[in-house]
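Quick check before the chapter quiz. The format below is the same one you will see on the exam, so make sure you can read both the input and the output lines.
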Amino acid sequence: MLRYAVLTVFALICADALAQDVTPTVFAPGVISGPLHDSAPAFTPDGNTVYFTRSDGTYSGILVSHLDHGHWSTPVMAPFSGQWSDMEPSMSPDGRFLVFVSNRPSTPGGKPLDGFFMGRSFPERGGNLWKVMWQNGKWSAPVRLPDNVNRSDSTFAPSVAADGSLYFMHPAANPKHFQLYRAAWHRGGYDDPQPLPFSDGHVTDVDPAVAPDESFVVFGSSRSPARQIDLFIVFRDNGTWGTPIHLGNGVNSAVSDAEARLSPDHRTLYFASDRLVDIAPGTVRADWDNSKYNIWQIPLAPWLEAHAKAQQP
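Here is the expected output.
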């Protein structure tokens, strides 16, 4: 226990130092990061196709773009999206399926889901988790995940591990907060979700992005020392989750930083932020640089390498 505590302190000190040397940059400005709210990129395993959320603040859809000769194509609506308010796609690490959030009716002919979270009602702003399979070169029809996963009509932010286990968020026992859960994939179905041990519902935790091998999770949280929702990383060693580490004020900003997502090799972190780009006085801002969500990126290698070093005997 003493060695573990020392390693935790060492990791926290390293994280503070590392955060000063990491500067987030905007991902595909003007194309994927556009004038509306853009967030939650989900890449195919080869990194050449990305699905992401685009929202006008009320309605959201899932768009797709392809990398061609170093440039991302103009995004278009994904074939499984466009009728309902869909968001937060998450690709399985092998690319066989994608899980996303939708307010579409849970049964045919029903009405869009209402949400209740953060202590109040959100008409038609609820969400359940749905799944599409990549079959014969196209996406299947969406299928709603079972009731033991969709226990709430405010179930959001899926992230898929390599073994099929699912991480996500829904309201805590105190409905003013969100809490993070894991539903293990077992014998062709999901076990009942269990709260992650570092997310006890006493503060708001959101948007888990899990490494394929479940060795770490990046997530958003209101816990100290966050100013609003800040980004944290937490590592899992020998089956035990450690203490979440704040990614520092070099990564986090005075506004909300959320919707964590990982690159296919889990070495780059993508996240959504409504911060503005630093520009020279008198410079005209681009239309996409307008205090709405853009997708930002940072390398995770410094934190991953510092943690690996701390684990060495």
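If your answer matched, good. The first helix runs from residue 2 to 19.
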